């Protein structure tokens, strides 16, 4: 497929959206006077401007223009129970009225309780908290490098592991002979040279990369479920191969479960595969809507950041690590998910399957096909809440790895990421990259609304193709 020129389409959508949300447009102009691009997280700052919300409850947000927007982004997929779920809000309200919640600079029993929950549900031996997924993956890589005495980091091309130097390499496809580029200026060239990109769901490619680099690899960091790389689950063979190769070459296997942790079960996703990593990173859902992240895993590796291991890795976690309010939210969220695991995950799986079917069928029926959604389960993962539509160059395009979904020659990436996102916003539906995930707050009626929104959005887009 030769990438289509969507300039006129995007201009028309932007003009319509400016008329649809004039108050948000005005707030964006005000924000740009004091903040770079009008905000503090690039992914939220869509063109021509993002909706400025004033309230968020359950499946919906309300913006400054009074629109009730059905939201499938749900806090970067952190809000598995929907926005501001009562089980978390009530725990925080009670804490704040009894002198708890804000930063104290002391430890407490709450940290122990949340760490015990994480260890019990993931099989980890030790946990240390921090405040973001980016920090968690960075600390995990530092631990692996210290433990092995090696420097190289193996990752999946197209995998996103956060905004630190090792994470900002080989995320998006680059033009030219090199398939993967560097995401940011300012990263030391030496760090770029330490990162090796491998192919997702390709055991043979993984074996080749281990043969070539294995004796210099500190770690292989991989998402069992790719987020930014296209909502794709790892195959069981791929993760089993990763575990066997890591053992053979003495490499630390890190599962980045920032997105997948507690999203497919009340614990880590690796357990469903029967594969245990040496370290795993968690964030998003475990914070219950507040900033909590964690590195969890083998004691002989984790001890390197403590006195027993000579404090060789400076894993302090930051001033706000284990913030009482955040851990109160974490305890409420994790306790609830564990107690209701048998109901929550099958229900999310049913809604997720319905969302994938609705989006693919509605968009294709209105002339944007062929369309296929990723996010579905596999032989070991029965329930998935995710759906991401792809506009395919051909019906037979495989969707097994980031190269399949990020290559404009195979899928129309701009149509999905920009045009569909904006066209759905005009129907008061928010779906970053054109897709998202259901929460327990979403209902079949919400999905019926999504169906109609997809059809109307497609009819708006079709004349420009």
Would you give an account of this structure?
This protein is α/β, with parallel strands linked by helices. The chain has two domains: 1-37 and 55-84 and 412-435 and 454-465, no CATH class; 86-339, 3-Layer(aba) Sandwich (Aspartate Aminotransferase, domain 2). It is 41% helix and 16% strand. It has 16 helices and 18 strands. The strands form five sheets. It has a seven-stranded mixed beta sheet, with helices on both faces. β10 (225-226) and β11 form a beta hairpin. It is globular.
Structure summary:
The chain has helices at 7-20, 22-32, 74-77, 86-96, 109-122, 133-148, 189-194, 203-213, 236-249, 270-273, 299-302, 324-339, 341-368, 402-406, 413-425, 444-461, and strands at residues 53-57, 60-63, 68-71, 126-130, 152-156, 169-173, 180-182, 195-198, 217-222, 225-226, 232-233, 252-256, 279-282, 293-297, 371-374, 386-391, 429-430, 436-437. The model has no long low-confidence stretch (mean pLDDT 96).
């Amino acid at each position: 497929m030769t990438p289509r020129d969507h300039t006129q389409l995007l201009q028309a959508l932007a003009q319509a959206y400016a008329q649809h949300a004039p108050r948000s447009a005005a707030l964006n102009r005000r924000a740009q006077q004091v903040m770079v691009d009008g905000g503090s997280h690039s992914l939220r700052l869509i063109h021509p401007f993002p909706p400025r919300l004033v309230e968020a409850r359950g499946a919906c947000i309300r913006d400054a223009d009074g629109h009730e927007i059905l939201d499938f982004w749900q806090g970067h997929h952190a809000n598995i129970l929907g926005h501001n779920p009562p089980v978390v809000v009530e725990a925080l309200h009670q804490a704040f009225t009894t002198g708890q919640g804000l930063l104290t600079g002391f430890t407490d029993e709450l940290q122990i309780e949340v760490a015990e929950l994480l260890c019990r549900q993931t099989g980890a031996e030790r946990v240390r908290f921090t405040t973001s997924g980016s920090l968690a993956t960075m600390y995990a890589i530092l631990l692996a490098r210290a433990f092995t005495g090696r420097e190289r980091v193996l990752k999946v091309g197209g995998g996103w592991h956060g905004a630190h130097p090792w994470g900002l390499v080989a995320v998006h496809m680059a033009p030219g002979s090199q398939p993967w580029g560097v995401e940011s200026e300012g990263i030391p060239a030496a760090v770029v040279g330490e990162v090796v990109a491998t192919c997702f769901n390709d055991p043979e490619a993984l074996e080749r990369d281990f043969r070539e680099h294995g004796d210099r690899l500190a770690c292989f960091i991989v998402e069992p479920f790719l987020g930014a790389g296209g909502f794709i689950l790892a195959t069981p063979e791929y993760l089993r191969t990763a575990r066997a190769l890591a053992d053979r070459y003495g490499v630390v296997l890190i599962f980045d479960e920032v997105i997948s942790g507690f999203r497919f079960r009340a614990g880590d996703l690796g357990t469903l595969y029967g594969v245990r990593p040496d370290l795993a990173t968690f964030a998003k859902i475990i914070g219950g809507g507040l900033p909590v992240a964690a590195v969890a895993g083998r004691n002989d590796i984790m001890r390197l950041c403590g006195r027993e291991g000579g404090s060789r890795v400076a894993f302090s976690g930051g001033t706000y690590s284990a913030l009482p309010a955040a851990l109160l939210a974490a305890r409420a969220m994790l306790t609830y998910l564990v107690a209701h695991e048998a109901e929550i995950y099958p229900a999310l799986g049913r809604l997720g399957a319905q969302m994938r079917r609705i989006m693919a069928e509605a968009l294709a029926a209105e002339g944007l096909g062929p369309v296929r959604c990723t996010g579905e389960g596999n032989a070991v993962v029965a329930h998935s809440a995710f759906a991401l539509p792809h506009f395919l160059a051909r019906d037979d395009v495989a969707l097994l790895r980031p190269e399949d979904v990020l290559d404009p020659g195979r899928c129309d990436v701009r149509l999905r990421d920009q045009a569909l996102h904006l066209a759905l916003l005009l129907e008061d539906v928010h779906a970053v990259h054109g897709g998202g995930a259901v929460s327990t707050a979403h209902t079949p009626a919400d999905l019926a609304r999504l169906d109609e929104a997809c059809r109307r959005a497609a009819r708006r887009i079709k004349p420009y193709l």
